[in-house]
Design a protein that fits this description.
Strand content: 15-25%
Number of helices: 13
Strand order of the largest sheet: 3-2-1-14-13-12-11
Radius of gyration: 22 Å
């Protein structure tokens, strides 16, 4: 009798769980389909992970428009800069093996780097605080080259700031980390990831991008040109093998990646704590970025997340550790905004993750920051508003500025939050275009000079 009662309770609990799951599956389906239509995205794959276990893994729309292939949970997407967290993991594994320390100067391991790079540490590269920027404006994305040739070309990039002085997103820094991984491990970073990350976690379809190999279930990447869908812009194959974000994943792969984090499988607790800690700058302030991860919050609830964009693909992973919830979204449109989809799904599953309306304490200041942002994009901003270092860094980001101007008119520039510190005030704004959202972080010292100015994915 006890067995029958216990079995009945188990069945009831199972029925209730399935009913609840189906309720949010239906809501998620409706939301994702609406976003595909609104954003004009051909296809997406999503994964919802709850307490380290998959709750929903599914594809929507088209993986390949020309061949009418549907997107599924097995569709292969490009990572974009979500791949940076894997590069960071490889570096941390080598550090825990005793091959290096976070505060080693990189010229200890890469003695041929320019003298101007001499003060840069591994930690600086991981946190985008090395003073390096993006690929130079004259870098040819259509020219094939070896990793060594690419790295030699990038070494012409002059630091725009002293190491640790400010945060500025740097693909150059992560390409350098890939070279460092090869130096420390004796293996190409993709092979090291296969051995130490992908195989141990069972990420069976994760790999470095290859234009040459036959890759089952590979999605096409697309872009909108004057509202019309086009294939992605071609990039030289070897540029799709560097460590700044050139990986293939399925949603299933990313479920296993998240499960590895939840179980603490790859790193020690100290290693994870270091990776997920905001970087401390030379002036004692912090920036909400760790090792390949950025940090935010919604209604005071922590978010550890990162986005990616490359070659007609967009990606986003949003972890809500206090809720034991992670949402992963891959999309195959350059103008897509998977971060909006990831956060929208999270809010459906847990309404406490829906952002509460926040009053702007100083609308006039926000309006002034919007005007300044537009002037920065147009190249007409008053250089006296910035410290010399920040002004130089903005000028060095010509390729990024040109890309942002291509998004079209700004639809919304909204205050998110601010934090007071001993050195001044840090403001964060959400900038929306038709199919893109970015965070703008502005640090202003007590004399009114802008000492920090950086964009990061939402």
């Amino acid at each position: 009798m006890k067995f029958l009662v216990k079995a009945s309770i188990t069945v009831l609990l199972l029925v209730l769980t399935v009913a609840s799951q189906n309720a949010y599956d239906t809501s998620v389906d409706a939301f994702v389909k609406a976003e595909l239509s609104r954003q004009k995205i051909p296809g997406v794959s999503i994964a919802i992970v709850s307490d380290g276990k998959p709750a929903l893994v599914k594809g929507y729309g088209m993986a390949n428009v020309e061949h009418s292939v549907a997107a599924t949970a097995d569709t292969i997407f490009q990572s974009g800069s979500v791949g940076k967290q894997f590069t960071a993991m490889a570096v941390m594994l080598l550090i825990e093996e005793g091959k290096a320390t976070l505060d080693d100067k990189i010229n200890v391991h890469l003695p041929d780097v320019p003298a101007e790079w001499g003060g840069i540490t591994i930690r600086h590269l991981l946190t985008h605080t090395a003073g390096l920027g993006d690929y130079p404006q004259d870098f040819d994305l259509q020219k094939d080259a070896t990793e060594d040739e690419i790295f030699k070309k990038l070494q012409a990039v002059k630091p725009a700031a002293a190491p640790g002085e400010r945060w500025a997103y740097s693909n150059v820094g992560y390409v350098t980390l890939g070279v460092l991984i090869r130096k420390l491990s004796g293996k190409f970073y993709g092979d090291y990831l296969q051995e130490r990350v992908f195989k141990p976690l069972g990420m069976t379809t994760a790999r470095v991008i290859s234009e040459h190999d036959i890759v089952a279930n590979r999605s096409g990447g697309y872009m909108l040109v004057k509202g019309e869908l086009k294939n992605q812009v071609w990039v030289a194959p070897t540029l799709n093998t560097t460590a700044d974000g050139a990986l293939y994943f399925t949603a299933h792969d990313m479920v296993k990646w998240e499960a590895g984090h939840a179980a603490g499988k790859l790193l020690s607790k100290a290693g994870y704590d270091a990776m997920w800690a905001p970087v401390k700058l030379n002036n004692g302030t912090t920036h909400p970025y760790g090792f390949g991860w950025m940090f935010a919050n919604v209604n005071g609830i922590r978010i550890i997340e990162h986005g990616g964009a490359w070659q007609g693909f967009k990606s986003h992973i949003a972890r809500f550790p206090d809720k034991k919830l992670t949402v992963i979204v891959f999309a195959n449109l350059a103008q897509g905004n998977p971060g909006v989809i990831a956060h929208g799904i999270a809010a459906i599953i847990d309404p406490s993750l829906k952002p509460a309306p926040m009053a702007d304490p100083d609308p006039a200041h926000t309006a002034a920051m919007k005007k300044l942002f537009e002037q920065v994009l147009d190249g007409t901003a008053d250089p006296n508003r910035f410290t010399e270092t920040i002004g130089a860094a903005i000028k060095a980001q010509e390729r990024l500025t040109a890309e942002i101007k291509g998004y079209g008119p700004i639809k919304q520039f909204a205050f998110v939050d601010r934090a007071e510190g001993q050195q001044g005030t840090r403001y964060r704004y959400k900038v929306d275009w038709d199919a893109m959202s970015l965070s703008l972080v502005v640090a202003i010292d007590k004399q009114g000079k802008i000492t920090g100015y950086g964009l990061q994915p939402q």
